Task: structure prediction
Amino acid sequence: NAGVMQNPRHLVRRRGQEARLRCSPMKGHSHVYWYRQLPEEGLKFMVYLQKENIIDESGMPKERFSAEFPKEGPSILRIQQVVRGDSAAYFCASSRDVGETPYFGPGTRLLVL
Amino acid sequence: AQSVSQHNHHVILSEAASLELGCNYSYGGTVNLFWYVQYPGQHLQLLLKYFSGDPLVKGIKGFEAEFIKSKFSFNLRKPSVQWSDTAEYFCAVNGGDKIIFGKGTRLHILP
Result:
């Protein structure tokens, strides 16, 4: 029973590059959530997706950030033209259905130089 | 809009002391409530959850939480903490489609 998988676990990018973070939900889970964690700020909701649909992206910055959850394959959080302020831990969670318990992946720690 | 407030950002206790971490939420409808723990360098793990039924919920590692609807609270408790409980604790609320987290409480247990 594999849990939520995220890769890479650590990602280093230079300013202006693109970062792609992947999340494979638990088996049978079709709901994915992305969160960003900064020190002393807790977990900030970014986006909630179901297969092929973005349900709520109210926490996503309007520019440079995008997310998808295709019919086949992992969910992708994409950050274009990264800046130093994007450095953070990005966590993905999945659940079987809306309102059910979300289970978290190990996170991707992004460092922008 | 739903929100979650954790009153204590840092808590320091000695081993065997009792613990209570406060959590209040703001949401007008039916909620599901969670407590997660994050050990240093690790990801979030579910401690316990409340969906319905008995408002006193027991979780793993001796933790429990009580849902008090009239106070919009879901405080986490443990009668006797251990050094291994040193971690960050997050309260979370799901009242709609997304799950909102509090800012977390860092707990340090002194041996």
In short: The two ends of chain B are 41 Å apart (CA to CA).
